[in-house]
Specification:
Blueprint: E1 5-6, H1 8-22, H2 29-32, E2 33-39, H3 54-57, E3 62-66, H4 78-91, H5 99-110, H6 114-125, H7 135-145, H8 147-155, H9 177-182, H10 194-206, H11 212-222, E4 223-224, H12 228-233, E5 252-260, E6 263-271, E7 278-285, H13 287-291, H14 295-307
Helix pairs in contact: 1-14, 4-6, 5-6, 10-11
Length: 310
């Protein structure tokens, strides 16, 4: 069963917006863009916290997608996957809870720290970075690094087919065994689709991912302030240049952005006065998209206005 009902009018709105953006001087954008946009008649927050799918199913989410099934390099959006996995490991007592783990999770999501992400993935997989390994040791190491992918497969969500979440995130790039693990053509890089990301984020916001208390902890980390003063004080605020920059100051935002030299992404859930709550995941690829600080806010603003209509 699909996790939302495709809405033809929303699809038309999305297609028209992509065409307008491409015609505004962003040549080739339609091929470099993936978007999944969901709209809800009521707040999504904790709707699935009763422990079954009933509360979530009753909200009758409608949605539309532009290349939403296409696998793309997710940059730091993959940290959302590792956050959820960490809570799942804790629930199964595969990880020991503690101050250092919580500090790493907070820094990974709030500040998008790559160093914190490295520790989290080490804990999830029981592996560490270092020099290249001989084959007899590298094989077991690689299998350990697939533990998060194995957990994703157990969810049995069709949207997750083909996704890959087993690599650390980097500033300068991988070295040693980490570089070997990427493959000679980088064929083992992380990959996600906006459809998969949307379903994961929807489950977190609805309170149905892992458990209601775990979802509440994740929601707290994903919450973003739209206060201009706070944003100005934090150049890495994950609002400016992303979905949050297209929202009014009074809106509520939960999000995880990703940005690198050839990608600018964001995954967000939004509640704004006078508009239906909505979830929006945007992946944009290419050097031009990566430096286009108006692209994601423009998309968000346009789709917010559509959510104000009946």
């Amino acid at each position: 069963m699909a996790f939302y009902s495709p809405d033809p009018l929303m699809g038309q709105t999305l297609s028209s917006l992509v065409a307008a953006l491409e015609n505004s001087g962003r040549s080739g954008l339609a091929r470099q863009l993936s978007i999944t946009w969901l709209r809800y008649p009521v707040s999504l927050l904790q709707r699935g916290a009763n422990g079954d799918a009933a509360g979530l199913a009753q909200i009758q989410a409608r949605g539309a997608s532009w290349a939403g099934e296409r696998q793309r390099y997710p940059a730091s959006v993959v940290k959302l996957v590792y956050l959820i996995a960490a809570e799942a490991w804790l629930q199964r007592q595969l990880l020991e809870d503690g101050e250092e783990l919580r500090r790493a999770l907070a820094d990974m999501i709030r500040d998008s720290s790559n160093d914190a992400t490295g520790l989290v993935l080490d804990l999830l997989s029981g592996t560490t970075s270092g020099p290249s390994l001989p084959l007899e040791r590298f094989g077991p190491w690689m299998r350990q690094r697939q533990l998060v992918n194995g957990w994703l497969a157990c969810l049995a969500w069709p949207e997750l087919e083909g996704c890959n979440a087993c690599q650390k995130t980097w500033g300068d790039g991988p070295y040693g065994r980490e570089l070997d693990f990427y493959g000679d053509q980088q064929q083992n890089r992380n990959s996600l689709s906006t459809e998969a990301t949307a379903r994961l984020l929807q489950s977190v916001i609805a309170g149905s991912m892992v458990s209601p208390p775990a979802s509440a902890r994740m929601q707290a980390l994903l919450s973003r302030s739209l206060d201009p003063a706070l944003r100005a004080a934090d150049p890495e605020n994950q609002v400016d240049g992303f979905i949050g920059a297209g929202l009014p100051i009074g809106a509520r935002l939960w999000s995880k952005a990703g940005w690198m030299s050839r990608a600018r992404h964001d995954a967000a859930y939004v509640e704004a006065e006078g508009a239906d709550p909505f979830l929006l995941v945007i992946f944009s690829e290419g050097k031009q998209a990566s430096i286009d600080e108006e692209l994601l806010p423009t998309i968000a603003s346009g789709l917010l206005e559509a959510c104000r209509q009946p």
